[in-house]
């Protein structure tokens, strides 16, 4: 059974992801799905930007005292996201242009600062 503070963290993370999705939709992206799990990884948001399928990683920190949330996207994390995206494309029979974006969120609700890094990294 999860501890109450762990449950709060999960609920907070889900709320941040919903806010991030709405924020991106306000900027013209179309939501496709959320929390797509694949062996070795999970894609927070799958969205469409015109003809491009966008895999979005949402990272949140209350403050940047210990570093910016975008800095937590390590090479290992990138590889996991790429693997999960390939699995998503294969499972859904898709062949289209793709992009990996990062939404770095800092602060606490309702006062959130969002930095959108479109094309944060590429699949090699």
Describe this structure in words.
The structure is a single chain. The protein has 124 residues and is α+β, with helices and mostly antiparallel strands. It has a single domain (4-121), classed as Trna Endonuclease, Chain: A, domain 1 (3-Layer(aba) Sandwich), CATH 3.40.1350. It is 32% helix and 40% strand. The protein is built from two helices and five strands; from the N terminus they run αβββαββ. The chain has helices spanning 4-26, 75-91, and strands at 30-38, 41-49, 52-61, 98-108, 111-121. It has a five-stranded mixed beta sheet with strand order 1-2-3-4-5. It starts with a helix and ends with a strand. The model has no long low-confidence stretch (mean pLDDT 89). This is UPF0102 protein C6W88_12315. InterPro entries: Restrct_endonuc-II-like, tRNA_endonuc-like_dom_sf, UPF0102_YraN-like. Belongs to the UPF0102 family.
Give the helices and strands, then pairings.
Elements: H1 4-26, E1 30-38, E2 41-49, E3 52-61, H2 75-91, E4 98-108, E5 111-121
Parallel strand pairs: 3-4
Antiparallel strand pairs: 1-2, 2-3, 4-5
Tell me the CATH topology. Answer: Trna Endonuclease, Chain: A, domain 1
Radius of gyration: 14 Å
Element-by-element helix/strand order = HEEEHEE
Strand percentage = 35-45%
Mean pLDDT, to the nearest integer, reads 89
Organism: Halomonas litopenaei
Protein name: UPF0102 protein C6W88_12315
Pfam families: UPF0102
Family: Belongs to the UPF0102 family.
In short:
InterPro entries: Restrct_endonuc-II-like, tRNA_endonuc-like_dom_sf, UPF0102_YraN-like. Helices cover 32% and strands 40% of the residues. By secondary structure, it is an alpha+beta fold.
